[in-house]
Amino acid sequence: MGRFEAANQGTLFLDEVGDIPRELQPKLLRVLQDGEFERLGSTQTQRANVRLIAATNKDLAELVAQNQFRRDLYYRLNVFPIPVPPLRDRSGDIPLLVTHFVRIYSERMHKQIESIPAEVMEALVGHSWPGNIRELQNFIERSVILTGGKTLRPPLEDCDRLPKLTL
Fold it and tell me: Which sign does the torsion angle of CA 131, 132, 138, 144 carry?
């Protein structure tokens, strides 16, 4: 059973849809257009009613202009676009995300991290995070791994792009 069949009558999230190879795009278009697909190796047509949420960090319109992404698939996916600005343009979200990720990774690693120093948060907010939330998330996970006490001690001195702090 594939993703579309498993998501029948539900929602399917396709991440990095801009990276789908051109030769696979007609298959995605068919299932989106007609709700039909074949299982791998089968000749029987299956049907699925799926709400699709697709995400990408690529400019799909630019890929269409470069003939790297099908125009018809672009229009099928672009029914209700929700542009999300990069993290550097919404630095006010960083403290909430840091707190969220610290809580998740602390619980997962059975640690009790209870505080984040103001100067640490200031350094994190001041960084541009070119890798967006994934970069921040991975940095916080590494920070939790390396923290030995109840105060978050991220390896700021090891990160070339973050301000150097003596903690």
Answer: positive
Q: Long-range contacts for 31-34 (Cβ within 8 Å, ≥24 apart)?
A: 31/4, 32/73, 32/76, 32/77, 33/76
In order of 23, 98, 120, 132, 160, the CA distances from 154 in angstroms are: 43, 11, 8, 18, 13
Report the predicted TM-score, pTM, of the whole model to 2 decimal places.
0.71
Angle at 10 between CA 73 and CA 26, to 5 degrees: 20
Q: What is the distance between the alpha carbons of residues 35 and 105, in angstroms, rounded to a whole number? A: 39
Per-residue pLDDT of 55-99, as tens digits, reads 998 999 999 999 999 999 999 999 999 998 999 999 999 999 999
Tokens of 68: 């790297």
How far is CA 25 from each of CA 5, 8, 30, 55, 112, rounded to the nearest angstrom? 18, 20, 9, 15, 47
Element of type H or E holding 137: helix 132-146
**Per-residue pLDDT tens digits for 109-160:** 999 999 999 999 999 999 889 889 999 999 999 999 999 999 999 987 655 5
Phi, psi of 14 (to 5 degrees): -110, 115
